[in-house]
Amino acid sequence: MTDQSTACPACGGSRLTSVYTKDDVPSHSCLLLADEDEARAFPKGDLRIAFCERCGFIMNTAFDPTKNQYSARYEETQAFSTRFQEFARDLAKRWTDKYDLYGKTVLEIGCGKGEFLVHLVEQGAGAGIGIDPGVRPERITSPVAGRLTWITDLYSERYAHLTADAVVCRHTLEHIAPVGDFMRMIRAALGDRTDIPVLFELPDVLRVLQEAAFWDVYYEHCSYFSAGSLARLFRATGFEVLDVSLDYDDQYLLIEARPSTVPAAGDPLPIEDDLATLRVGVRHFQREVATTLNRWSEMLWRGHQRGEKAAIWGSGSKGVSFLATLGPAADLVRYAVDINPHKHGMFMAGSGHRIVPSEWLREDRPDLLIIMNPIYRDEIAGELTRLGVDTELRAV
Ligand SMILES: [Zn+2]
């Protein structure tokens, strides 16, 4: 099926192929809801995931930005995980060294709760400016807090006057629909300062396609990139791509670039040559997604028939999407465990599952615990040992 009505926001191409369709998914994944009924009645939106045949960009053509409101109630941080913290600290160190950010000012667009900017300044950057509607400066306890400036807002042309020696943007571009306009806005703000490193991190869609990972496709993520489609966007919007790589067990893409004054500067890197691989991935996702869904659903029903109890670990976007997509089998999941204390006692958008601390497992003792990100398996197994809880662990 080809949707002729929409142009690709990354390249302007008009040949979009449908990848995946789902109606009535929660329009937010990380908003905290104190009331179960409010959580279940949470506003819904549709997924019309499409693939641009020209540049490989994948998007939700039914995305309506007015359904997304980011605010202080938004609880996206993964920083309560040691594994994620170590990764972020290590990345901050690597970028500080590689781009000589010592003593320099870094602007972070979409800084979330601000942890990464703190890491950068602790590693040697001189100062940081963080912009995000969900930033919570009162949570920052680092000794470098005095060198950080926070702006509680979405980045826009209003902030083009902010000058910095580097621009960082992590896990933000996938929440933005007009990705071409967004990159051109950043490029325009940088003007003739072609020495500024521009460093982005976001999920890699190729892995999502190859694993038919339906839990990684959700409303908040309206834009999905591979190494190639991301680099093509950067090159098309006035950047020279210095490096593109995969990290965090190949879940995340890192792109390092700088403003260019000539169109499409530099030769594409070998990793960018992925259009054929993407097409294969799209077909694989289309073929396998129903099977993957049924496998989880049947596992839960079989366990239920044996009188077993099941729960998930991870109440973030993947958990919300997993439960919202499972259908009736989601009712067989008793609750979601999360290590972020700010989420405890709250309810997940859409399915309305309660979010509980890990100590809860001591009392309830589920027979099956589904881990929403395999990278946390060791961390979770360690926590279960500490709690003295023996349960079957399965990662998506
Ligand atoms: Zn395109």
TrEMBL record:
<dbReference type="InterPro" id="IPR013691">
    <property type="entry name" value="MeTrfase_14"/>
</dbReference>
<dbReference type="InterPro" id="IPR029063">
    <property type="entry name" value="SAM-dependent_MTases_sf"/>
</dbReference>
<dbReference type="GO" id="GO:0032259">
    <property type="term" value="P:methylation"/>
</dbReference>
<keyword id="KW-0489">Methyltransferase</keyword>
<keyword id="KW-0808">Transferase</keyword>
<dbReference type="GO" id="GO:0008168">
    <property type="term" value="F:methyltransferase activity"/>
</dbReference>
<protein>
    <submittedName>
        <fullName>Methyltransferase type 12</fullName>
    </submittedName>
</protein>
<feature type="domain" description="C-methyltransferase">
    <location>
        <begin position="283"/>
        <end position="384"/>
    </location>
</feature>
<dbReference type="Pfam" id="PF13489">
    <property type="entry name" value="Methyltransf_23"/>
</dbReference>
<dbReference type="Pfam" id="PF08484">
    <property type="entry name" value="Methyltransf_14"/>
</dbReference>
